[in-house]
Amino acid sequence: MWAFYAVLSALFASLTAILGKIGVREVDSTLATAIRTIFVLLMAWGMVFITGAQSGIRGIGGKSFLFLVLSGFATGASWLFYYKALSAGTVAKVVAIDKFSLVLTFVLAALFLGEKLTLKTLLGGLLITLGTLIVAL
Q1: Ramachandran angles phi, psi of 118, nearest 5°
Q2: In the prediction, which pLDDT does 58 show?
Q3: Global confidence as pTM
Q4: Could you tell me if residue 107 is left (phi over 0), alpha (psi between -120 and 50 degrees) or otherwise beta?
Q5: Can you tell me the distance from the alpha carbon of 36 to that of 29, in angstroms, rounded to the nearest whole number?
Q6: Which one, 45, 68, 78, 96, has the greatest CB density within 10 A?
Q7: Residue of 134, 110, 132 lying closest to 121 (CA atoms)
Q8: Which H or E element spans position 98?
Q9: pLDDT digit string (tens) for 40-72?
Q10: How far is CA 117 from CA 79, 98, 125, 130, 133, in A?
Q11: Which of the 8 DSSP states describes residue 54?
């Protein structure tokens, strides 16, 4: 089932780029990010209550909470820079460079989480890097 969700994630990420590019044409990118975030917040909390997950709030430990907060700051920074890039660049180039995060994630997961960099992962990362360079240049 995870693959189905991943495909949906990719679909909605692509829509994010297209709709975002249209949205920042006449709006400051920081303001656009803030407006977008309101709806992300409403949708996320709506799903929490629809699924009944709110009961798990009391069980969140301090370490988990800290890393969720740090992840939130990273997400916020990513979104702000993404919308700034979209407002100035072409969608294809911005998205190609943004998706280079996959390669960075491979490396950071190996460094901080001890995940193995397999030959398949390294080859895929190399191809993604080459693809990013080809599209972005």
Answers
A1: -80, 170
A2: 93
A3: 0.84
A4: alpha
A5: 10
A6: 96
A7: 110
A8: helix 91-98
A9: 999 999 999 999 999 999 999 999 999 999 999
A10: 28, 21, 10, 18, 22
A11: G
Tokens of 74: 């990273």
The number of beta carbons lying within 10 Å of the beta carbon of residue 20 is 20
The whole-angstrom separation of Cα 65 and Cα 32 is: 27
- How far, in whole angstroms, is CA 44 from its chain's centroid? 15
User: Do the Cβ atoms of 95 and 121 come closer than 8 Å?
Assistant: no
Query: Which tokens hold the place of 100?
Result: 């280079």
Mean pLDDT, residues 71-91 taken together: 94
Q: Is 43 helix (H, G, I), strand (E, B) or coil?
A: helix
Going by C-alpha positions, the residue among 29, 16, 20 that lies closest to residue 80 is 29
Whether the per-residue pLDDT at 128 is higher than 90: the answer is yes
Contact 40, 20 (CB under 8 A): no
Rounded to whole angstroms, how far apart are CA atoms 102 and 107? Answer: 9
Q: How many residues does the chain have?
A: 137
